[in-house]
Design a protein that fits this description.
The chain starts with a helix and ends in a 15-residue tail after the last strand. With 663 residues, the chain is mainly α.
């Protein structure tokens, strides 16, 4: 039977799912064909071309044949003929593997400057989610003359932190055509230097001259030495190189950079350069939670000279100081970011704080903005609901899926391959296949009903992360049972009750930590549902009286929940019952959370928005948002996110001493 026939038959659906343990989402029986796929996966990771070629014939007819064929061809893509590649694309048309290989091939064609073939193949690229491929596309005849191409290129180019060829090549081409100017090139170099990417700065400056590119490397190595050797900065190039050096100084010591700017260099820079450097200094000070960050940002005379990243940190510093006028002004100057619910919410809050009269049109504008985002979807959406005087409740369940809708999901070839890959432990491949099928295979992704059906399929197999992530994408039909499942409900509720811990908080944390992947393991070694580190598990086991604990037990569900909830309770108690502080400590460590609470007493939402680490900032907001929704499900009662957030400030002097032993 041909592979395409296998994927479109209901019998294949039954065959594939029979390999999966419905309780654990893991393979029950591994036949020899499965072993071949697993061997090929390992050979691919080792770039073993000979082993892949030897095994490929034995993968014929397997449900994951397209992956096997992709691995074999990918490792020798630079030597494969166009005919071989086209044969693969035809044979596996419609699969993730087809578009994945096309993605890889387009990158290769771009680097080799084979534009005729690139232009022919690019329109067939369905995922269209690779920024470098898009940059290559912008350099082709079809795009290069369009007036909007330069703006798109800059957005893509500036978003890259590391070196890449596609956007740099197109930027050079647009620069030669005078469609981007010298300031655009210098801004890329500034961003690269601010992100400690000297090679990316060098490549950008090479567009102007290779000598300028070399200067970027020297500045990175010793910015202070570079500044000390320069008395004046008169030319545009000399001014901009000084800006790069000041940015590097600010990265490690914003106060020192401020002194250098005030005493000497500020007098020589243009107004735009002056504003950018002050903003970088303000950003670095804000990330260190320095009280003077806002005053540094106040030295910026024109917000329009800044990019969105700098404006975001300017807004955060203003929030920390309660300067609502600066909050609104900074958000107004943003480009794309101002449409994010985060900044819609804070601008509305600023307008409401600044305009007290009920008849003021600014209040009506703020209310309309809050209404535009208010929902149970996420942190700021929930806060918008509460700002409008509404509570957070579980929404009504959508109409039940029909048997036909469920059948179509079960027969979907991409979903079948994804589940099969997951059943074999190929999590990365399974997730990619699943995400491609639901989000990218069809322009705009699946319809909401199709997403609900796909999520239902994943839920029925207890593949909870795909269930949650898929259901999360619906906008109007919201199924809380899918978005906020409660695996091991009896265990979690019992353990939480035993130690007087809010079970909604436990579930909110697990959903963010592991998405209920039972055997989840992070790159740093955290394991299980609650992602507990080995040393933390050992320490906590002793504290909660779990005798004879062995490290391998951490993946046991009961043990993981017992240790995870025990540790969370200890952390929560040490932080005076503050859920935001405890969540930050769970993610980034208690010592960091203690340092971040120093300073003024803040509304916890403002405190969370100013957490220096992007991962922890998002983590705290998502855990608290999850917690509020889980509480609505568990209690059946309206809930308040604001009540859970409270305020955050220095430790009460009357509180017990900190538990400095907490790992």
């Amino acid at each position: 039977m041909q592979f395409t026939q296998i994927l479109t038959s209901l019998g294949a659906s039954v065959l594939i799912f029979s390999f999966m343990n419905p309780a654990l989402g893991q393979t029950n029986v591994q036949n020899k064909a499965d072993d071949v796929i697993l061997e090929m996966n390992q050979a691919f990771k080792k770039n073993d071309k000979n082993q892949l070629a030897r095994l490929l014939p034995r993968a014929k007819g397997h449900a994951l044949e397209s992956w096997a064929a992709y691995w074999e061809l990918r490792v020798r893509l630079d030597q494969a003929t166009d005919a071989e590649i086209q044969q693969f694309l035809t044979q596996y048309a419609g699969t993730y593997a087809e578009d994945r290989l096309r993605n890889d091939w387009l990158l290769q064609l771009g680097r080799q400057r084979e534009w005729a073939t690139f232009a022919q193949e690019y329109p067939r690229f369905r995922m269209n989610d690779d920024r470098e491929v898009r940059c290559y596309a912008l350099s082709t005849d079809a795009f290069i003359s369009k007036p909007e191409t330069a703006a798109e290129l800059k957005r893509l180019w500036y978003a890259f932190r590391d070196t890449e060829d596609g956007c740099t090549y197109t930027a050079e081409k647009l620069h030669d055509l005078k469609k981007i100017d010298v300031l655009d090139v210098w801004r890329k170099a500034r961003l690269a230097m601010d992100n400690n990417r000297p090679r990316a700065a060098q490549l950008a400056l090479n567009i102007e001259s290779t000598e300028l590119g070399k200067q970027a490397i020297l500045i990175q190595a010793d910015p202070q030495k570079y500044l000390d050797k320069r008395i004046l900065a008169i030319t545009k190039k000399r001014k901009e190189l000084s800006v790069l050096a000041l940015i590097r100084v600010a990265n490690t010591d914003p106060d020192k950079a401020a002194q250098l700017l005030e005493k000497k260099w500020g007098l020589m820079l243009t107004k735009e350069e002056h504003n950018w450097v002050w903003a970088v200094i303000g950003k670095q000070a804000a990330q260190k939670l320095q009280d003077n960050a806002h005053s540094y940002f106040n030295k910026v005379s024109r917000n329009q000279d800044l990019n969105d990243d700098l404006l975001i940190w300017k807004t955060r510093a203003a929030l920390r100081q309660g300067d609502w006028k600066a909050v609104v002004a900074s958000i107004d100057a943003m480009e794309g970011s101002k449409q994010d619910p985060t900044w819609i919410y804070w601008k509305a809050r600023g307008q409401l704080a600044l305009h007290k009269a009920t008849t003021d049109p600014q209040r009506a504008e703020a209310t309309a903005a809050l209404q535009s985002i208010a929902s149970v979807k996420g942190f700021y959406e929930q806060l918008a609901l509460e700002e409008l005087g509404q509570s957070i409740t579980a929404p009504a369940k959508p109409a039940a899926l029909t048997p036909q809708e469920k059948l179509e999901a079960a027969q979907n070839g991409g979903l079948q391959r994804a589940l099969y890959a997951l059943s074999l432990g190929l999590r990365s491949e399974g997730n990619r296949e699943w995400n491609y099928t639901t989000n990218l295979h069809t322009p705009g992704g699946m319809s909401e009903r199709d997403l609900l059906a796909a999520a239902d399929l994943a839920c029925s197999k207890q593949v909870w992360d795909r269930c949650i992530n898929t259901s999360d994408r619906t906008k109007t039909q919201i199924d809380f049972d899918q978005r906020f499942p409660m695996p091991l409900k009896d265990t979690v509720l019992r353990k939480a009750k035993e130690i007087q811990l809010d079970p909604a908080y436990v579930y909110g944390l697990i959903r963010q930590e592991s998405r209920f992947i039972m055997d989840a393991k992070s790159v740093v070694g955290a394991a299980g549902l609650m992602q507990v580190m080995p040393a933390t598990a050992k320490w906590t086991a002793k504290k909660i009286g779990m005798t004879n604990f062995q490290p391998q037990q951490i993946t046991d569900h009961e043990v993981n929940v017992a240790i995870g909830t025990g540790y969370l309770k200890l952390v929560l108690d040490d932080f005076d019952g503050s859920m935001p502080l405890a969540a930050a400590a769970y993610n980034a460590g208690p010592s960091r959370s203690r340092n971040w609470r120093k300073g003024p007493v803040l509304e916890a939402a403002i405190w969370a928005e100013n957490i220096p680490f992007t991962e922890t900032r998002d983590y705290v907001k998502k855990v608290l948002s999850n917690t509020t929704n889980y509480a609505a499900i568990i209690t059946g009662q309206p809930q308040s996110l604001k009540a859970r957030l409270g305020s955050v400030g220095p430790r009460n002097t009357q509180a017990p001493e900190e538990n400095t032993d907490l790992p």
